[in-house]
Amino acid sequence: MPAATGTANFLTLGKDPVPESPQLLVEMKGLGKSYNRLFSPPFWALHSLNLTVRPGEVVGLLGPNGSGKSTALRLLLGFLRPSTGSVRLAGYDPWTQGYLARRAVAYLPGELRLYENLTLRQMAGFLANLRGMEVDSEIRHLADIFRLPLDTVLRSGSSGMRRKAALVALLAPRPPLLVLDEPTNTLDPAMRAALLEIIAEGAKQGQAILFSSHVLEEVEAVCHRVIILRHGKLEAEWERSEMRRGRRIQAKLAGPITSGPPVRVEGDMGTLSQKLDLEVENFGPAILNWLASQPVTDLRIEPMGIGRLYQAIHGERALGVEL
């Protein structure tokens, strides 16, 4: 088999294609999972979830602990049998057609279990060979990006090194679908930025990514859509344009503001304290010029979507970041 390249057809797996040009790599319809309990009603870990992921799309799957994220992923990968509804992975039923379905996906779990007696080159090559692929050049390229030695035994590396090794093995075959659970955990800022760039580039080339992270700035940066679960139910769904609408401005002031803002704002204008905490729908040069004329000593500007994500995930206990 030829080595994987940047122009690989993401809908071709080894010698066998997935069902003819599937429009959806992930399709969940009314998907639910319940567990029977002695002397009490069943416990529903997931209720009637509808979720799709198309080629070229990055979808964020978010929620607090116990929200049903892990259950949804286990159902998608065929590790659990649905109680209600249906799930399709690359057109296949992952419970009854597990082998065919899982050829289309590479999964990075939150808790890693690696072949730690192998080197990166050996592990990545072994996993690619299971797919009938040779990806030596891609392994070398990714190892260079993540600054990894190819021939060091994994058990001798740090947790960050093992996480990067898992990412290399996951990314090298370029499967149609990536399922990433907290992929940047233990990575330093430079490596996080490199991974997000790889994710964005993969989506441009037709790869689909289901992305779960607690770092909401990462979600806002790479996801086309965000799905939020709470208590096993769909709480909210947003498009990227909705997440990026407006800005939250937080600033420390050396003194009182000298004039009112040129656009409509909501929040604390710092009349009782030397702080600004504003939400601005129409963000642009006018508000930036106004900020430049004020006695600002420290400034933070972020999309309001980040705050909306916190609110949807944590409800009234939404967390903010103050200067």
Chart the SSEs and their pairings:
Elements: E1 12-13, E2 16-17, E3 26-37, E4 40-53, E5 58-62, H1 69-76, E6 84-89, H2 98-102, E7 105-108, H3 120-130, H4 136-145, H5 159-171, E8 177-181, H6 189-204, E9 208-212, H7 216-222, E10 225-230, E11 233-239, H8 240-243, E12 247-253, E13 265-268, E14 275-280, H9 285-292, E15 296-303, H10 304-314
Parallel strand pairs: 5-9, 5-10, 7-8, 8-9
Antiparallel strand pairs: 1-2, 3-4, 3-6, 10-11, 12-14, 12-15, 13-14
Tell me about this structure.
- The protein starts with 11 loop residues before the first strand and ends in a 9-residue tail after the last helix.
- It contains ten helices and 15 strands.
- Helix 3 (120-130) runs parallel beside helix 5.
- The radius of gyration is 23 Å and the shape is globular.
- It folds into two domains: 12-241, P-loop containing nucleotide triphosphate hydrolases (Rossmann fold), CATH 3.40.50; 246-317.
- Helix content is 29%, strand content 29%.
- The relative contact order is 0.14.
- With 323 residues, the protein is of the alpha/beta class.
- Report the order of strands and helices: EEEEEHEHEHHHEHEHEEHEEEHEH
Structural class: alpha/beta
What's the overall geometry? globular
CATH class category label of the largest domain = Alpha Beta
Measured distance between first and last alpha carbons: 54 Å
Helix share of residues? 25-40%
* Overall structural domain count: 2
- Share of β-strand residues: 25-35%
Mean pLDDT across the residues is 84
Main sheet overview: 6 strands, mixed
Tally of extended strands?
Answer: 15
Radius of gyration: 23 Å
Full CATH superfamily name of the largest domain: P-loop containing nucleotide triphosphate hydrolases
* CATH arch. level architecture of the largest domain: 3-Layer(aba) Sandwich
In the predicted model, the low-confidence regions spanning at least 5 consecutive residues are: 1-18, 317-323
Number of helices: 10
Sequence of strands across the biggest β-sheet: 7-8-9-5-10-11
